[in-house]
Structures are given as structure tokens and as C-alpha cells.
């Protein structure tokens, strides 16, 4: 029996290595730098030294020296040894993991903070494990919010590793810049916007001002396809009406500014194949492949004051950028925002948000 168990283990380990190799081949063909056993990246600024999650594989894009320096300025962190921006984090379970193990996989992917996570499992190792992985992700999203992590079946990558994918980078439609809102026309806000705009554009980022995350409209369209939705417009008289646009379903999000980076054109095509292989990924709101033409590397809110309005901005920054920065006019405002951030972090995370004074 011991010999049989050992033989089965060797087969499983060989199978897991093959899954890793297929994923590596796909990542490289898409134009990413692929690294294994990753626990360090630009996103380490989010984590303390107590525990650094280690994930099986990471697909990353190189940062230019100018981009690294620009990010270091807005974060007030030294990034001399950081050369890559993680885009896709991958955990592979080629054997028979427990549900709690897969829960830890989801947590590691979320904590390391890559924009997209893949939890790869193998039906050859355990029948129905894909359904367990999907349930684990949905349960985590139910409890902890919109984690951008999707399940994937290992056998899919046999064929996908032999595909030829579109080359080059996706194009980002030129953002339609809009005039800032009332208080942001103050001299400090105008000058600060100009500094951050020039810093981002000079580093090679595409600057969007303001930035509206496309995933909100995609989420509304998905919900609308399930049938007519209504909302209560007059709770005193129980009057309900049909929801007719995205802004009536989800609060519109206008982030003051964002630095965007185009992603490999093949990534959208690759994720479109995952959509095709399992349509429930879209049906459950886990994956919108058309949203993966670019990545919001850094997003900014300018706050000349404090209070609940400024606190609400923290949530948008955490949700829609790899890195979020609140820019304040005074040191008092910076300290107040940092206090609010520390208050929110134990329950809401927000580990990717920073506060910087820009007098």
C-alpha cells in the first residue's frame, strides 16, 4: 500500500509540473515575464513583514525606470529593486486539496494583490474539484467583496498552450478628460492635478482624468440580462420603478485621476477562451474578458479637507487601482486621512491605499 501511495504521489507531482509548464508557455506567449514561487513584487508595499503569501506563478509586465520612479514618488517608497508589475497571479492545485486549502489559495492571491488571480485545479486528480474551487471563490466574494479571482480546469491549458495569440499591446481609447468638480478648482487642486498628470504622462502611463471603472457598466449589463430589475424610488409610498441605466443600479464612480498601462492584446483573447470554456464565469460576475485591455496601475483622489466625503474616496481607490493614493494639501489633512485609513483597514482591507501630502 505504501508503494502504491508513493507511486500515485509521483504521478500527481508530475502532472502538477506539466500544468505549471503549460501555464508558463501561455504566459510567455502572451508577452508576460513568468516567474514561479513568488512572494515579492511592487505589491510588497501593501504587506508587513509578518507573513508574505507565496503563490505558484506570476505573469508580470516590465516597468520602465521612469514608471518605477514615478510610482516611488507618489508612494513615498523606495522601489529601486522593483522592475515588474504583477498582472496575473496563479495558484495550482494538481492533487486533492481540502476546501480550506483552496480558501487559503484564494486568500494568498487576494493578499498579494495582482489584478487577476487564477485558481487552477485538476479534475484528473479529483473529480468535482472544479465545482469546489468555484464555490470557494464565490463564498469568499460573498464575504469579502469583489475579488477578481476565477477557477480554471488544468486540462484547458493543454490546448491553450499550443494556441497563437494576438501580439503587441492593446490600445487604450483616448480618455475624455472632464473639468474637475467645484472644490477641485482651487489653486492647490489645479496645481496638484497638473503635477500628477505630467508625472504620469512623462513616465509613459496613459492618464485618465477622471477615471470611471468599466466593470460597473459590465456588472449592470449582466444583471439586466437576467430580466427586468426594479428599485424603490419612494419608500414612503412603496413606489417602485424599473432600473433603466447603470447609474441607477450602482453608484457612479468618478476617480479624480488614474495612470493606465496597456495589457498584452493576447490576454483579452485568452480570458475570452476561459469565458467560452465556462460561461458561468461571466454569468456569476467573476470574469468580463473585454475589460482586460488595460490596468489601472495607480489611481488618485485629491482631498483638500477631511470627513466622510474623503473617507468614501478611500473605498474607490482600494477597489479600482493596483495602488491608490490620497493627495492632501496640508499635514493636518494627511494625518486625519491616515487615521481614517487605519480605522477602515481592519474591516475593509484597503492595504493598497496610501496618503501623501502635496502642499
Give the arrangement of secondary structure elements.
Elements: H1 2-30, E1 33-38, E2 55-62, H2 65-75, E3 84-93, H3 99-112, E4 116-121, H4 129-144, E5 149-153, H5 156-160, H6 187-202, E6 206-208, H7 215-225, E7 230-234, E8 239-242, H8 246-249, E9 257-262, H9 265-277, H10 280-283, E10 294-303, H11 308-320, E11 323-328, H12 331-348, E12 353-357
For the biggest β-sheet, the strand order reads 1-2-3-4-5
Strand portion: 15-25%
Q: What would the average pLDDT be, to the nearest integer?
A: 86
Secondary-structure content class: alpha/beta
> What does the radius of gyration come to?
22 Å
How do the SSEs run, as a string of H and E?
A: HEEHEHEHEHHEHEEHEHHEHEHE
In short:
With 359 residues, the protein is of the alpha/beta class.
Could you walk me through the main structural features you see in this protein, from its secondary elements to its overall organization?
A five-stranded mixed beta sheet has the order 1-2-3-4-5, sandwiched between helices. It has a five-stranded mixed beta sheet with strand order 6-9-10-11-12, sandwiched between helices. A hairpin with a 4-residue loop joins strand 7 and strand 8 (239-242). It is of the alpha/beta class and 359 residues long. The protein has twelve helices and twelve strands. Helix 3 crosses helix 4 and helix 11 crosses helix 12. It is globular, with a radius of gyration of 22 Å.
